[in-house]
Amino acid sequence: MKFLFVHQNFPGQYLHLLRYLVGQKAHELLFLTEANQNQINGVRKVTYRLHRAAAPETHQDVREFEGSAIRAEAVALAARSFHQLGFEPDIIIGHHGWGELLNLRDLWPKAPMLGYFEFFYHTDGYDVGFDPEFPMEPARLPSIRAKNLVNFLALNLGGHGQTPTRFQHETYPDWARRQITVLPEGADLELCVPDPAARTRPFALKDIAVAPGEKLVTYVVRGLEPYRGFHVMMRALPRLLRERPDARVILVGQDQVHYGMRPAQGTWREQLTAELAGRLDMSRIHFPGRIEYADYRRLLQRSDAHVYLTYPFVASWSLREALASGCAIVASDTEPVREFVAHGQTGLLTRFPDPDALATTVLELLDDAALSRRLRANARRYAERNLGMGRHIAAFESLIGSLTGTERIAPAERARRSSIG
């Protein structure tokens, strides 16, 4: 088959699917993306370039959509070069979030399209207005509704969609859900594995040293921001560190805002550190910034309590990988998390936003070795039953087969792959 993949950051969500398809040695794989250094042998990467950004004078409510229209135009321009050479994809697969797929239907009107639908925005009931500390001003609500412009256009392209969780699927209107399949994402169970001996030896990350006898509390996000509960985590630290003098905390993430409001000035880390000045033992709080993936996996293996917090929004890949790594998880009692974490079974859930409740729950976990062992074992067991990459690939291939009319993999083979990592 001839596949056309589209994602601004190659390989995006498609790393494991691409590796599987390359291994079949039976497909032509073309990937359209912005320039980056990533490569996969057997995948032909074609880059596109934006000729400009959205104009500052564009109305704020549609500035984001203008950026998507500019991106859609750039993608179609790059695609036209290999369209003119006769490339006819059997299927187009890509992420709808940035508008990249919007104009490709004009080039290949009959090609099946499988688009990733990540989130349908609402002015209430989900992330907007969830945190009482950051109420939404009525004047900003039109810009929230306008975020769905690409969603609406994508839903009318005549293709099919996929989304990884029931929560994300349910954010879409009833009429839209019929054309979106819940296709769960997995975790690499061979890379993300528990290491029970990790807490018996010294741990080092950049200039951070953790002794075997110390308790390590971990928190990992892309950006240190309220959407992922950074303010709640920081406000839980004074009590946590006071009651556990043997505890050390590593907070991984960059001083960036990917979702939600930006601080009035500086960064959220600077703002929260200033707010808590004199109450934090900064010698035991560490901000390593962005870290290598291998170090991130070692960090999860060493963790004594791993904190994952989020608004009712898209769950991070790190939650799946923490489960696969056998972490003892303390997470926010929010809908996207409850899809993965059952309280008292695969982790502990805590009220959001409530720093004291978070501190209480983390302290409970650090104090109870038997509870920690049980949660770790159950987390890994959950991952093996639900997050195996073979299961994810088999579901993906079955959906592709139904859209293209090609033969699906044999049931016995699909069952075998569903049982592997």
Give the secondary structure arrangement, pairings included.
Blueprint: E1 2-6, H1 15-24, E2 28-34, E3 44-48, H2 63-84, E4 91-95, E5 113-116, H3 141-146, H4 149-155, E6 160-163, H5 166-170, H6 174-177, E7 180-182, E8 203-205, E9 208-210, E10 215-223, H7 230-243, E11 247-254, H8 268-275, E12 285-289, H9 293-302, E13 305-308, H10 317-324, E14 329-332, H11 335-338, E15 348-350, H12 355-367, H13 369-386, H14 389-404, H15 411-418
Parallel strand pairs: 1-2, 1-4, 2-3, 4-5, 5-6, 6-7, 10-11, 10-13, 11-12, 13-14, 14-15
Antiparallel strand pairs: 8-9
Helix pairs in contact: 7-8, 7-12, 10-13, 14-15
Describe this structure as you would to a colleague.
By secondary structure, this protein is of the alpha/beta class. The protein has 2 domains: 2-184 and 389-410, Glycogen Phosphorylase B (Rossmann fold, 3-Layer(aba) Sandwich); 196-386, Glycogen Phosphorylase B (Rossmann fold), CATH 3.40.50. 36% of the residues lie in helices and 17% in strands. The chain is built from 15 helices and 15 strands. The chain has helices at residues 15-24, 63-84, 141-146, 149-155, 166-170, 174-177, 230-243, 268-275, 293-302, 317-324, 335-338, 355-367, 369-386, 389-404, 411-418, and strands at residues 2-6, 28-34, 44-48, 91-95, 113-116, 160-163, 180-182, 203-205, 208-210, 215-223, 247-254, 285-289, 305-308, 329-332, 348-350. It has a 7-stranded parallel β-sheet with strand order 3-2-1-4-5-6-7. It has a 6-stranded parallel β-sheet with strand order 12-11-10-13-14-15, sandwiched between helices. It has a two-stranded antiparallel sheet with strand order 8-9. Helix 7 packs parallel to helix 8 (268-275) and helix 10 (317-324) packs across helix 13 (369-386).
